[in-house]
Amino acid sequence: MRILAFLLRLMPILAVGVVLHYVLPQHDIVRIVNTYQERQDLNDWTRIFWSDPSPQSATLVNRDVQFIQAVRKETFLLGFIPRDTTEVMVYRNEDTGWGWPFYFKFDTASLQTEADDLRSTPESPKWAVVTHYGWRNGYLSAFPNAIAIRPVSSPDETIIPWFNIAFFVIVIFLIGMVRAMWFQFRERMIDPAMDAAGDRLDIAQANMDARRSKMRRWFDSWKPKDRR
């Protein structure tokens, strides 16, 4: 039972962690090799991995999507430390508009132009930092959505995720505030009410015991003396 209770408590935490890992911005150091446009079918459940920037697109079963092909520097330790190896990566380039997640991206055409300008070859590489959200999954045809691109001078550029750091600091601060407010509320309101209810229950129990004792003595008074 303890294991089951632990798993039930762990599942909401894991669910929140998965959602945050998908929607929070991530940064990749890449060399862009190509950009292209392709029509994508959106008529099954994998539509959740594509943006829905306008009300009209909700009724479409397919649409043209722009993509950015790149060679990415592999990293470890949650992407903070780059390695010497590379891997291929494909990003989609879609507006998020006013929808979820709230990146308010409206510059898909400009971003595609920036990506075209940064295309390079292995002999004369140009490196860039692609800020994106989402996952790459070939089986589900899921692509991370590029939010911003900026050139860097070296593939060993150090990237500090300031937004994510600030986000978690604020979340921890708010959780601490809510926790402190809850403890204060419980100390001022709930605990005194529970103590008062306990006192009333003790008094009622004592009165009940006194009445029972009185009734028992009254019944005993009707018994013969030899049976008392």
Automatic annotation (TrEMBL):
The chain crosses the membrane at residues 159-182. InterPro entries: Phage_phiNM3_A0EWY4. Keywords: Membrane, Transmembrane, Transmembrane helix. It comes from the Bacteria. The keyword Membrane applies. This is DUF1523 domain-containing protein. It comes from Loktanella salsilacus.
